[in-house]
């Protein structure tokens, strides 16, 4: 009970606006199982980057208030990301059955979500304190060359969509 209360307080406490992997770093490559519109598929960062920039956002847990708000905001912005040639993918430590439901109910069939293994969470240095199988809330924009061009960490969902969209626009303008 005390451990759960501590974990919840960490989830709800404000976090500084910085991310573990800084712009200019190479994004760790990975492949995992994802879900889009309730259907499972194999996701590969390397393959996704061949199509254009990737907005890779980590969130703690599907169907929680902040994660649902963030998913709705990304769903609303997905057409704009798509016009810019960007792929949006949400990442959490949830199992694939949960992700299938979340991709339909909260992502509104607009973008994919994928399973973040403890190894991926560690590689992106987004481990949620006291819950190593969960990530904090961090958003990245990764250019097709595999370099991170934007990184933002904040436990509140506000700012993630606007920041990543602005970063994709800036990246596109420099192309």
Question: Can you put this structure into words, describing what you see?
Answer:
By secondary structure, the chain is an alpha+beta fold. It has a single domain, classed as Glutaredoxin. It is 38% helix and 26% strand. The protein has 6 helices and 9 strands, in the order H-E-E-H-E-H-E-H-E-H-E-E-E-E-H. The strands form 2 sheets. It has a 7-stranded mixed sheet with strand order 2-1-5-4-3-8-9. Strand 3 (54-58), helix 3 (65-83) and strand 4 form a beta-alpha-beta unit. It is globular, with a radius of gyration of 15 Å. The relative contact order is 0.24. It catalyses: a hydroperoxide + [thioredoxin]-dithiol = an alcohol + [thioredoxin]-disulfide + H2O.
Summary, kept brief:
The protein has 175 residues and is an alpha+beta fold. It is 38% helix and 26% strand. The protein has helices at 2-12, 45-49, 65-83, 96-105, 118-123, 160-174; strands at 31-36, 39-44, 54-58, 87-92, 112-115, 127-128, 131-135, 138-142, 148-153.
Put simply, the count of helices is 6
What would you report as the Rg, rounded to the nearest angstrom?
15 Å
> What oligomeric arrangement do these chains adopt?
single chain
**Going across the major beta sheet, what is the strand order?**
2-1-5-4-3-8-9
- Give the integer mean of the pLDDT values: 90
Describe the largest sheet. Answer: 7 strands, mixed
Alpha-beta classification: alpha+beta
Overall spatial form: globular
Query: How many domain regions?
Result: 1
Looking at the structure, the CATH topology is Glutaredoxin
The CATH top-level class label: Alpha Beta
Name of the CATH architecture: 3-Layer(aba) Sandwich
Annotated CATH homologous superfamily = Glutaredoxin
Distance, first to last CA: 52 Å
Helices and strands, in order, run as HEEHEHEHEHEEEEH
What percentage of residues falls in helices of 4 or more residues? Answer: 25-40%
Strand fraction equals: 25-35%
Spans of 5+ residues with little confidence (pLDDT < 50)? 1-18
GO molecular function: thioredoxin peroxidase activity
InterPro entries: AhpC/TSA, Peroxiredoxin_BCP/PrxQ, Thioredoxin-like_sf, Thioredoxin_domain
Pfam families: AhpC-TSA
Family: Belongs to the peroxiredoxin family. BCP/PrxQ subfamily.
């Amino acid at each position: 009970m005390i451990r759960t209360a501590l974990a919840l307080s960490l989830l709800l406490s404000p976090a500084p606006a910085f991310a573990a992997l800084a712009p200019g770093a190479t994004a760790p490559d990975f492949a995992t199982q994802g879900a889009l519109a309730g259907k499972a598929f194999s996701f590969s960062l390397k393959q996704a980057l061949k199509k254009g920039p990737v907005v890779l956002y980590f969130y703690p847990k599907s169907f929680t208030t902040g994660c649902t708000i963030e998913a709705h905001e990304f769903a609303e912005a997905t057409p704009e990301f798509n016009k810019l040639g960007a792929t949006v993918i949400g990442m959490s430590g949830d199992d694939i059955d949960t992700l299938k439901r979340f991709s339909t109910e909260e992502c509104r069939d607009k973008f994919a979500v994928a399973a973040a293994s403890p190894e991926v969470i560690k590689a992106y240095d987004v481990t949620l304190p006291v819950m190593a199988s969960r990530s904090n809330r961090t958003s990245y924009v990764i250019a097709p060359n595999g370099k991170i061009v934007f990184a933002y960490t904040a436990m509140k969902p506000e700012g993630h969509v606007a920041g990543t969209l602005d970063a994709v626009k800036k990246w596109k303008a420099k192309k």
